[in-house]
Amino acid sequence: MSKSDANVLRLEHITMQFGGVVAVNDFSMEVNQGEIVALIGPNGAGKTTAFNVITGVYEPTNGIVYFNGKPIVENYPRGKMKKLYQGDSALIYDKVLSQTPDKITKLGIARTFQNIRLFRKMTVFENVLIARHLRSRANFMSATLRLNAAEERANREKTLELLKLVGLDANKDDLATSLPYGKQRRLEIARALATEPTLLLLDEPAAGMNPQETLDLAGFIREIKDRFQLTIFVIEHHMDLVMEISDRIYVLDFGRMIASGTPIEIQTNQHVIDAYLGVQED
Amino acid sequence: MTKKKDLIFALVLLAAAVCLVAVLDRILPQTGIVMTVLKKGCIYSLVAVSMNLLNGFTGLFSLGQAGFMLIGGYTYAILTIPAADRASVYQYFDGGIVQFSIPFWAGLVCAGIVSAAFAWLIGLPVLRLKSDYLAIATLGFAEIVRAFFQWDTLGPLTNGSNMLRKYPSFTTLMFPFVVAAICIALIVLLINSSFGRAFKAIRDDEVAAEAMGINLAHHKRMSFCISSFFAGVGGALLAMYQTTIQAQAFKSNMTYEILLIVVIGGLGSVTGSVLATFLFYAASEWWLRFLDSPLMIGDWQVPLLRSGFRKVVFSVVIMLIVLFARQGIMGDHEISLSGLMKLFRRKRKEASANEQV
Lengths: 282, 357
Hints:
The complex is a heterodimer. By secondary structure, chain A is an alpha/beta fold. Chain A has helices spanning 47-54, 81-84, 101-107, 124-130, 140-144, 149-165, 181-193, 211-228, 239-245, 263-267, 270-277, and strands spanning 7-18, 21-32, 36-40, 62-67, 70-75, 109-111, 199-203, 231-235, 248-253, 256-261. In chain A, the strands form two sheets. A six-stranded mixed β-sheet of chain A has the order 6-7-8-3-9-10, sandwiched between helices. In chain A, strands 2-1-4-5 form a four-stranded antiparallel β-sheet, covered by helices on one side. In chain A, strand 9 (248-253) and strand 10 form a beta hairpin. Chain B is mainly α. Chain B has a domain at 28-251. Helices cover 69% and strands 2% of the residues of chain B. Chain B has helices at residues 2-27, 33-57, 65-80, 86-89, 104-126, 131-149, 155-158, 174-191, 194-204, 206-211, 216-242, 252-265, 270-287, 309-324, 337-356; strands at residues 164-165, 244-245, 296-297, 300-301. Chain B has a two-stranded antiparallel sheet. In chain B, a hairpin with a 2-residue loop joins strand 3 and strand 4 (300-301). The chains are: A alpha/beta, B mainly alpha. Chains A and B meet through helix 3, helix 4 and helix 5 of A and helix 8, helix 9, helix 10 and helix 11 of B.
């Protein structure tokens, strides 16, 4: 593993323990500039937990997360966890660094959610427009008195542009929740893009899609990657999609990384096959 | 384009309202029942809209409104009583410790600022709580404030449990109307700005809002302080209207009344809140008054009509609303030209459809 500055994202010895349950154990990985990397694994393997650690929703029990070479999250087993800790690689770290999710989004990491989380009572247009708020320089007074009209106009144009890109400009005044499932997923991606990320985390973007929609999605992910010069880290269950788009794949099972490599290496990896199909008992 | 038309429509309505208020000020007796309803309507509209900003738009269930109104009302009164009158107002406290007075408009602004400052302080611990717990904590805060302002040791400042009076007040309807209109306009502008959208995002989904880069603590505190600012101004207007102010009157009942108005009008609708306020006070002060006085028709006394029956009927109406019309009058929609046009067009379509059948 190289530790070059080309790493957009690097996790080192991340362990997430809830009470006595170790959801992710000693997970290290990296995503390089311009890559599409996938994280796969059976249900309950700890994939979404890993996402939540990266985005600041959870504070990891142990380990460190680097973004563009700088630590953004760091922790070690302390307090009650000192005795309870069941993960590996303890005693490496001694610093604590935690940030709320909004700070991490501001740094340039945007995400979508496995169970779609759109703003229900707002229109499609407003859902994307909200994500422009964090880059706004206005304060509440200048915004109330409309002194930021130019910025507001620019934000609206950018929003419309993004909606066109994901093919939702015709639905812009509809309520977000009135959209069909596949379009809601696209809207979530548009909303994430509106925060101007450099790293995009997609949590099961193809969940609930039919094969044709999944195929379209693969093209779409590549398109936005090139267009916005993104690095993409994706959790996915659809193996067709994963094998199609990823440069590299990490496999989690019961919180542990059991394999990593190119799609072809993963397809032939015995550990992975065992994890997905179960080991035959003789 | 519809937006521009809506704006013009709103401005025309506002201008018409100003003219109407000017005419009413001339032809109606200032102490009559209609004036009472209209003045109270203006004042409580502002308070209801400020509560809606918090409860309906930001999704923070707070019940501290009476407390902030009290702070606003007292701030206004304490700062604006003319220096010459202080000796008689603070007769038990040697004329009090504040020996200057500021003009009424500065008093109104200070009322808002002091309220907002209190909100900022109690927001530090309280805004970490959610839903019911936040409601309980803010309700407790309002009760503490009420007791605190009546504390004898603070007498030189608050006049203890005695009332404050002789501060400047208003006599016309125009004054509360203009102040409330300006404040509500500012709230509407805020709601439709980028920050208002952030508030709504927090209401709809906190996790997603945070993931979109919205700082939850910062925005919640902002909404709480702004709401309290306008509740404070509302409290000052109420103090002006009553010409005397006493902490005793700002009970939790007052908050419940305002909450009712907000719910009846529709959580998340400014025009709903305003409409509901006027309906509420017209009903409680005027239309349903007759329920409180015994009525004889010939020899027969109409049953049930006696002092206090009004409250019973009111409670039943409220229960019916909560049971069958939880969305309130407006839901989370606003009254606007485009909305009315849509409604009108739909009605006409239905009518023509009926004709064809």
